[in-house]
Amino acid sequence: MGERSRQLLPPFERIGRTGRLILERARRLGLGGWLRAERDPLLQGVKTTAACVLAWWIAARLLEVRMPVLAPMGVLLTISATAYSTVVRGVQQVGAVVVGLAGAGMLIYLLGVNAITLAILVAGGLVLTPLLNLPKQNVQIPITGLLVFALGAGYSLERLIDLLLGAVIGILANLVVLPPRHVEDARKELAELAGDMASLTADMGKGVRGTWGEDEARSWLERSREVDARLRESQEMAEQAAESVKLVPLERRRQDQRLDQVSEAMTCLDHVGLQLRALARSLTDLAAGVRGLPAEDVDRVPSALGDELMAISRAFAAFGRLQLGRGSVKDLGRLRTALREGGEHQTLAAERVPDTGNVRLWSLHGAMLDHCAAIRHELDPESGPHQAAFPARLIPG
C-alpha cells in the first residue's frame, strides 16, 4: 500500500499496518540487512540530539541567556532532510525571526501592548509568511511577535541570538558531522520495494500452483497497483538523494556512483513493475472470463508458470538485498540462480500450455510467459539493460 493510501486509513489501523510491514521487512531482510538499512536514521537521530545539547549548553553556560531551551529549538527547526535544504531553512528561519522582531517592536512602540496589537501581530505574520516564500508550516513570524509581546522588547536580542546559535549549529551539524545520506535511504526504499514485489510474486506463484479464482486474482492486481503507486512516490526520494550531496563535495565524490545505481535501480523496478501489473491483469481477466476468455479454465494454467513466479520472487528478494550496503557476492549468486531456474521453468511452462482452440486463451498464456521473460531480462545483471543497478565492484565493466 502506498504512503498516501495508508494515510487514509483510521489511525489505529494505520499504526497496526505499519507495524506489520516493519516486522515483515525485518524478517525478509534478516537481522544483518535490517541493521544496515536502519543504521543511518539512528546515527542522524544521535547527531541531532547531540547538536541540541550543545546548543543548550552554549546558550546556558557561555551566553547565559534567560531561555536557553530556545537554542535547541532553533536546531530542530533548522535541521532538515538534506544539508542543502538545512542551509535554506536556516536562512528562512533567521529571516522570519528578524521580520517578527522588527514588526513586533514597531507595533508595540506605536500601539502599546493590547488586544489590537496582538491581532495585528498574528494576522500580519500569517500574511507575510507566504509572501516571503516561507513554507506553509513556518509560523516563526507570528510566534516571534507573540514572544516579544509577552516578554517585552528586551527579549528581541535574546531571541535573535538563540535562533542564530541554533541555526549555525544545525547547519554545521548537517554539513560537517555525518551529513544526511539520503542515498542510503533511497537504497533502503529500493530494497523494500523489491521485497514487496518478491512477496506479491511468491503469493501469485503459490496461488497459480494451487486453487485460485477471481477473488485471489483481483487481490494480486490491487497489490500490483499499490506497488506501482509506491514506485511513483519513491521518485521523490531519489530526487532527495541527489540533493542530499549538494554542498558536501567530499560526500558527492563518494556517492556519485551510488546515485547512479539508485537511479538505474529505480528505472529497473519501474519497468518490472509494469510487467508485474500486466501479469496480474492477465490472471484477473482469465479468472473473470472477460474478453472471450473461459473462466472455467483457470486451473489449466501450467503449474510450471507458478514455479517460474516463485523463482522470480527469489530474484526480486536478491535484487533488493543487493541495494543495501556494498552488496554481497552471495546475493548476486542467488539472483543468477533464481533467473536461471526461472528460465528452466518457463521452458517447461511453454511446453505445457494447454492445446486449445480458443485463440484468446492461447494468446493470454503466451503473454503471461512473455511478461515473466521480460522481468527476468530486466533483472539480469550481465545481459540485462540495467547493469548499473548493481554494485559496480560485483559487475566488472
From TrEMBL:
Source taxon at top rank: Bacteria
The keyword Transmembrane helix is annotated on this UniProt entry: yes
Keywords tagged on the record: Cell membrane, Membrane, Transmembrane, Transmembrane helix
InterPro entries tied to this protein: ArAE_1
Sequence intervals crossing the membrane: 69-87, 107-132, 139-157, 163-180
One Pfam family hit: ArAE_1
Broad class of the protein's primary localization: membrane
Membrane topology of this protein: Multi-pass membrane protein
Localization terms from the record: Cell membrane
Keyword Membrane found: yes
Official protein name in the record: Aromatic acid exporter family protein
